[in-house]
Amino acid sequence: MRDLSGIVKAYDIRGVVGDGLDADVVREIGAAFTRLVGGPAVVIGHDMRDSSPGLAQAFADGVTGQGVDVINIGLASTDMLYFASGKLELPGAMFTASHNPAKYNGIKLCRAGAAPVGQDSGLSEIQELVAHGVPEFLGAKGATSERDMVAEYSAYLLDLVRLRDIRPLKIVVDAGNGMGGHTVPTVFADLPVELVPMYFELDGSFPNHEANPLDPANIVDLQAKVREVGADAGLAFDGDADRCFVVDERAEPVTPSAITALVASRELAKEPGGTIIHNLITSKAVPEIVTELGGKPVRTRVGHSFIKQTMAETGAIFGGEHSAHYYFRDFWRADSGMLAALHVLAALGEQDKPLSELMADYSRYAASGEINSTVDDQQGRMRAVADAFGDRNGASVDELDGLTVELSDGSWFNLRPSNTEPLLRLNVEARDTEAVTALRDEVLAVIRG
């Protein structure tokens, strides 16, 4: 009986290669996934990690062993795999551990049309099937074919966001030795953009820095290059290039909330009155701006499965998260860092102001960013914070995802427990930096005792 509990996460499969994640396990996962989703074929892509091609092949063996064909798209970003799943109307598997260090790998799975497969939508069934042994298929094996889809992926994105008539821009892109180095050259090839590439060499050992732009230490090189060459903006992609982070012409980071508001405004201009999804940690500027533009903001829990489910239920045209995941109805409700980046370039190039001035309209409040605290008793500390702030005059409290408290002066914070570590994650927003600092320190004093 094989136990996958150590590698099956909430939204994907991920672990250290050789320690619970190896070719034999992946072959069985491929067979179980095929049993779950059926035929006629499964599309498979992989990132640049040394272990990815071998694991992808093992998964393919599991699929074909169940009598189902495989379409191998080879090197791909995660959003390119979602494109393939949507375009071909086939279930898919992407081999990547995103921004995790080199020793990790994993599998992001989706049903036909890029519909997510998470713990509550298929992963638990796959885990159960593997635990009890996937039934042997006695018929003929499936066939394997190869298809390079990067040009089709690029053309599809550039049909959604028109950039041919923008003013010339100089853009620095830090691919972090990840899959942006594979997709950016094709997508940017015919744009009026002077591309300044950084770390485009595909290298799963990440020799320059971790492929995790959410950590400020990993965008230092990008910021220096933007200043050095006098660029109009800088873009940083994570390892599997499904997330994109932006810095302006001063090399100052642009918050994902501001990007969410910008893209929302562009999508609402195309479809007035549309619904926009935002998770509860994005700035309250997002629902304010959406409402001002005549759109309908809808607030969700954190996590792509909640975003995608709510998008499907509401017919939302766009959704954004504080973690720089951006979801598009016209991209099968899947997330694409590249598509968000193209929207930023289009917005910048359609007018003459620098990016810092353009984004000022979408950045109304100061925020703390996510602050982690290690605690022994997550629920006990959460109750202590609720007790400390819930009775304040004018305070409102909700528990949609963790604990969110909004105070009478408009400042707010969210406190969420980690699902995998003994941590509480705090996000604070207020009118200015001083107010953020004061509220942050007050909440942390309760959390940390």
Automatic annotation (TrEMBL):
It comes from the Bacteria. Residues 370-445 form the Alpha-D-phosphohexomutase C-terminal domain. Residues 8-130, 153-250, 258-365 form the Alpha-D-phosphohexomutase alpha/beta/alpha domain. One of its GO terms (biological process) is carbohydrate metabolic process. This is Phosphomannomutase. Pfam families: PGM_PMM_I, PGM_PMM_II, PGM_PMM_III, PGM_PMM_IV. Keywords: Isomerase, Magnesium, Metal-binding, Phosphoprotein. GO terms for molecular function: intramolecular phosphotransferase activity; metal ion binding. Transmembrane segments: none annotated. PANTHER family: PHOSPHOMANNOMUTASE. Belongs to the phosphohexose mutase family. Its cofactor is Mg(2+).
